[in-house]
Amino acid sequence: MSPRAESRDSKYYKMKTIIYLLLGSLFGIIMYKSEAASWFRIYEMFNFASFHMYGIMGSAVAVGLIGVQIMKKKKIKAIDGSELSLQPKEKSIYRYLFGGIIFGLGWALAGACPGPMYTLAGVGYISILLVIAGAILGTFIYGILRKYLPH
Amino acid sequence: MNWIFEPWPWYIGGPAIGIFMLVLLSMGKQFGMSSNLRTICSIAGAGKVTKFFNFNWKAQRWNLTLMIGAALGGFIAANYLSANTVQINESLLPQLQAYGINSAGKAYLPTEIFAVENLHLKNILILLGGGLLVGFGARYAGGCTSGHGISGLSNLQLPSLIAIVGFFIGGLVMIHLFYPLIF
């Protein structure tokens, strides 16, 4: 690779990093400001005591659904010309149901799902680092036990 | 200027998440936050233990960058854009008080669980255990609230619907059967 192409590549890489950092910050702000990152809102949701969390998820899916259908119908490609990242999930019931139930137990116990965990760590909650450590460990344990589990 | 500190209603937060997912999609990426946990395992060398972690994690750098951004966004929101309190339905307060949680309406997370000075053994086990279940369950189900809940449902994936039914069965069992035993 010529030095010029190399420097262009590294410039492109830096620009991409900044874009993802900005997008991620936006996501963190949305999570925090919408209170989807609050333990209290999760507790409230599983008590069916407010429409708030259902409204967030429902309207997010509604906007996503409309957008995805339009992009599919118009055969819109990603910015870099590649196909949209919309691989169909493999058909099964066990892994989604059992995995989902285990996830739900943890979601309600810790009061946080993966996205908000990172956001809360950035807020400065030291204790959320325990949740993140647990989540990394849980992922690792799954990787080991994977071949013994029904999928 | 008080409006800056006000929390966002669902009809701002929800569509914003939907648009965020669509922006990622148009950049050729798929919205999924728990994938980062697998990537972290891979970087830490878990690929030597089992091949599930043996993949080219560098292709996931964009998602790790997004994750660092999500933390940065939390810092910005909590320090400059929020009063850091969450008001919930008041009918839940007596039950929470019975669990020893009196910080509803006064904090963003219950201080009785999350404050550093309250990190005794029981809370450490709750936080570690909760995280463990989230990490294990997310990978077993092949996604979390973002991957299944938003990306999957938006693409009308039946597996994602099954996973979300699972999320809710688990959450309801935890709150209604296990909470009275734990707290």
UniProtKB/TrEMBL annotation, chain B:
<feature type="transmembrane region" description="Helical">
    <location>
        <begin position="124"/>
        <end position="141"/>
    </location>
</feature>
<keyword id="KW-1133">Transmembrane helix</keyword>
<comment type="similarity">
    <text>Belongs to the TsuA/YedE (TC 9.B.102) family.</text>
</comment>
<dbReference type="InterPro" id="IPR007272">
    <property type="entry name" value="Sulf_transp_TsuA/YedE"/>
</dbReference>
<dbReference type="Pfam" id="PF04143">
    <property type="entry name" value="Sulf_transp"/>
</dbReference>
<feature type="transmembrane region" description="Helical">
    <location>
        <begin position="12"/>
        <end position="28"/>
    </location>
</feature>
<keyword id="KW-1003">Cell membrane</keyword>
<feature type="transmembrane region" description="Helical">
    <location>
        <begin position="161"/>
        <end position="182"/>
    </location>
</feature>
<keyword id="KW-0997">Cell inner membrane</keyword>
<feature type="transmembrane region" description="Helical">
    <location>
        <begin position="64"/>
        <end position="83"/>
    </location>
</feature>
<protein>
    <submittedName>
        <fullName>YeeE/YedE family protein</fullName>
    </submittedName>
</protein>
<keyword id="KW-0812">Transmembrane</keyword>
<keyword id="KW-0472">Membrane</keyword>
<keyword id="KW-0813">Transport</keyword>
